[in-house]
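Take a protein:
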Amino acid sequence: MDQVEIGLQLLRPARLSPAEFKGLIQKRGWRMADAAVRWDVRPETLSRAAADPQRETRWDDLVRALPALTRRERAAATAARLQLYPPRPRAVPTVAPVAGPAVEPAVPASPAFDWADEEDDEFESFAPAGSGYRYQDYVGPGSELVVVSEIGSFASEGTVLVVIDTRLGVNEDGQAQEEYHCEAPQGTTLWLTPDQLDDWVVSTGKTRSRF
């Protein structure tokens, strides 16, 4: 291999696939929302980058440079993130969450970066990752989501889900959140919370017109 070929591999390395990108973040012990805080971007911005197989190389460099966290450090990072960016206070909903058959995946709870300079008007500063509405107006009926971490028997890695509906829900702390009814290719459906979107899927950025 000559000098130019070596140089090209350094300057134009192969990009991580969407699954490799998100998998490496998780392998190093990070939650997507916590990595977004570290890089000072919105969670949905990071989700879009993760889903883009043609993302800029500097994104991959950021992931590869993440320090590995112990379980204790991971918990500490999440606690600090929630203190830095607490959920926005919202009015208590006056209607009960929409009832519907709950289908839980047969898996335990998991263990959606804008490198912009001053002239970049599209820079998105970080918004509270704890907000149960952080994917609102970004993920909705018709949105395609790619599974990057197997969801039990519901969907394997690489499966493309389609959001068919949304509803008002309540998280474990009693705070309101938007939840997303996702359909797998075989026709089975599952409601996902914003935290589950963080851990199990990334958006393709595409919306199916039939919705």
